[in-house]
Write a structure and sequence with these properties.
- This protein has one domain: Alpha-Beta Complex (Nucleoside Triphosphate Pyrophosphohydrolase).
- Helix content is about 15%, strand content about 40%.
- The chain is α+β, with helices and mostly antiparallel strands.
Length: about 150
Amino acid sequence: MRTIHRDIVGGFIFSKDGKLLLGKNREGGVYEGSYVVPGGGVDDGETREAALRREMQEETGIDIDQAVVTAFNQSSGEHEKTLRDTGERVFVKMNFYDYRIDINQDAADIQLSTEDDWHQPRWFSIDELKDANLSTATRNTLVMTQILN
């Protein structure tokens, strides 16, 4: 089985009123049925910051150029997957780069557009996150960064 190395960016988008934007991956995606942060792969020749801007625009419709963006967590992981375009089964080694994105608007005032792989967006208060069906990776990052206890 072939091994692929991939850098992945994720955006923990917080509104001015302290809510976190999460959504679900489309059917067949990683962590299907669980809430995850928007994000995706860094393309060849692309910086992580450029990939973050592109992915947030594609998955949420949010332009983060006016937001406060802070790199706040890095981790790695690996799993097997089937490539969409070829059907080939591969082993993927990933480096995850998480960013906190603070938007100076209340959640209710932020226009969302979800036409990519990420959908069913929902703004969560910190208290609501405790009982939410979060992906393991999302929950672990929220605990490691002390957003969740």
